Amino acid sequence: MEEWGGWEQALTSEITRVEGLRVIDRLRLEGRLTDDLVPECVQSLQDVLERTDDISLGGTVLYRASLAYPTVIGTLDAIHLASALLWKERSGKEILFLTHDRQLGKAALSVGLKAEGF
Question: Would residue 56 be called left, alpha or beta, if left means φ above 0 and alpha means ψ between -120 and 50 degrees?
Answer without folding.
Answer: beta
